[in-house]
Each structure stands twice: as C-alpha cells, then as structure tokens.
Amino acid sequence: MKPVFEQSSVAETAYRRIRADIIFGRLAPDEKLKLERLKTQYGVSVSTLREILNRLASEGLVVAEGQRGFEVAPVSPENLREIAALRQLLECYALELSFAAGDMDWEGRVVAAHHKLHQMELRMIGGDRSVTQDWKRYDWEFHQALISACGSRTLMETHAAIFDKYLRYQMISLTFRGQIAADEHRQMLDAALSRDAATAQAVLRRHVESGVEHGLAG
C-alpha cells in the first residue's frame, strides 16, 4: 500500500488533470464520466475518482446523477452570461483595490504577464492556433496579475474559480477576437501603470461583454 502522502499526491494530480481536461474542453459538456475508463486514463482507483468527481461537482464543473454516475456539466448561453457578469463584478472590485495598493513589484508582474500574453496574441493573429491553450493560460495570468495586489486571498480565489468557468466557455465556444482583444489588453496595461482604475474597469466590461456576444454569435 502506498503511504498516505503519496496517495494524496496521486489523487491531487488526478484532480488537477481532470479539472483541466474539463476546462479546456477535452472532456466535453454532457459527456458521461465512466469510472472504469477514467480509472485507466488517470491512474487512480474508482473510490478516489468518486471523491474527485464529487469535489468537481461542488465546483459546478461536474453533475452527480446519483446511481447513474457523473457527467460533465452542460453549458448554455444563460449560464455563460451569468458567469461573465460575476467575473466582471469580482474583477472590477479587485482592480480598484489592486491599483490603489500595487507597488513596483506588482507593476513588474503585470508588465511581464502582458508581455507573455501579447506574444501569444501575435501568433494567434498570424493564424497559429497551435498556441490556443498557451494563449488562454497567459490571458489568465495577465488578469490575475492585474488584481494580485488587492490584498484579499478570498477574493483572488473566488475570482480564479469564476475565471476558470469563463475560460471553459472560451475553449468550447468563444473565439479569439484578434487585434481588438489585444488592444483591450494593452489599454488595461496602460491603465494599470497609470493607476487609472475607472478606465481599466470600463475596458474590462467591454472586453468581457464583447467576448460573450462574439462567441454566442459565432
């Protein structure tokens, strides 16, 4: 038998892999999560899988169907709009706090995160879709860097959970808006460096709302 800490590590790794596969669309909405197949795929026991899937159900990424098992949570335009609204609410509040408290180290994190995101945006604009997952990872990092000086771990964790649900929709149905989205990120960077929270909030709202409408119209 493996030591308890090793069992925990294996379970946590499997949890993160399954969660990432749901968010990045490799496990599709409404897909039945058959335990025997997942056991082989992720290298954990059925009992551990049940614990993982119940944990993901509490996060809203999996639906537990009682005796019928588990399936990936469905998606809908209504749910996307609700998630987008929650993201805006949390991120706008966090931006104001972060801009007021941010120091030079925070500025460095924001600039570095934007640089990485911009490199991926340039490749996406050039038609390279092989970097889609990296683009979204750096998008997440940039928005997290912007609010990283907010001073509230709870706010950061709550925002990250909502952003992941929004990211899931982006990977499934929302599409890259090209230069427009890249320009919005640049505007948010400039607003951060000048501590202009009102402008950053306005750009963020436009950024999220336009992304939702662009995705739903596609």
List keywords for this structure.
single chain, 218 residues, Arc Repressor Mutant, subunit A, 2 domains, 2 strands, disordered N terminus
Written as H for each helix and E for each strand, in order along the chain, the element string is HHHEEHHHHHH
CATH class of the largest domain: Mainly Alpha
Biggest sheet: strand arrangement = 1-2
Shape: globular
Q: How many strands, which pairing sense, and closed or not: the largest β-sheet?
A: 2 strands, antiparallel
Extract low-pLDDT stretches.
1-7
How much is the average pLDDT?
Answer: 91
DSSP strand tally: 2
- The fraction of residues assigned to DSSP E strands is under 5%
CATH homology-level superfamily of the largest domain: GntR ligand-binding domain-like
Helix content: over 70%
Q: What is the CATH topology of the largest domain?
A: Four Helix Bundle (Hemerythrin (Met), subunit A)
Distance between the termini: 51 Å
Helix run count = 9
- Cα Rg: 19 Å
Q: Assign the structural class, choosing from mainly alpha, mainly beta, alpha/beta, alpha+beta, or little secondary structure.
A: mainly alpha
Quaternary organisation of the protein chains: single chain
Number of domains: 2
CATH architectural arrangement of the largest domain: Up-down Bundle
Question: How do the strands and helices of this protein lay out in sequence?
Answer:
Blueprint: H1 4-23, H2 35-42, H3 46-58, E1 62-64, E2 70-72, H4 77-101, H5 104-125, H6 132-146, H7 153-172, H8 179-193, H9 197-217
Helix pairs in contact: 1-3, 4-7, 4-9, 5-6, 5-8, 6-7, 8-9
